[in-house]
Amino acid sequence: MTNKILLQIRKVTPMIGLTYIILFCLMFFVTIIAFYMNISVDAFTRDPAALFDFHPFLGLISNIGILFWCSTSAICLFSANFYEKGRQRIVKQFLITSGLLTLLLLLDDLFMLHDEIFPMYFHGSEKIVYCVYIVLILMYFLKFKTLIAETEYFILFMACSFLGFSIIGDVFFTQLGILVEDGSKLFGIVTWFIYFARTCFFQINSQKITQG
Q1: Residue 212 domain flag
Q2: Number of folded domains that form the chain
């Protein structure tokens, strides 16, 4: 029993140690930002609902979208570990890139990068940020167009259509923001999740059949 515990400690110590170092750096960074911007530290650490004493269901739809962004990124990055050689390399690149792209969209949605952070602190136009995202997505499609063509790309097309409609609603139809922007974005995020969840599932299954 003691030997098993010692073996576990030796195996997990590097990973746990690195994780704790990253978390410590995060807390240190938050403390520096709070001091520099003259913001209370608890504004970064406490739950918003408790901090501002508002209803915990406030922002429910937005939070659900964040969970689906996160789930998609995690599924893609985890599934990429099943591929290493030959044709599997392009599948691995596709899944890693998809996971990182989804992570970027997650961070943008979570921290309001395009509509608050970039315009406020970097003096960049919201439309310019949208253009950068569109260019990145187009480059992504061009690089992996052959592989995407072998998947259920209609689902991906639907996801991009909803997300694109959400952008149009955000830029041109501010009075219909709730209906056009937020509703379309949620449909787009969930459809994006469905596409990559099914793609990862079928890719892994096909690899098992090939190896079998």
Answers
A1: no
A2: 2
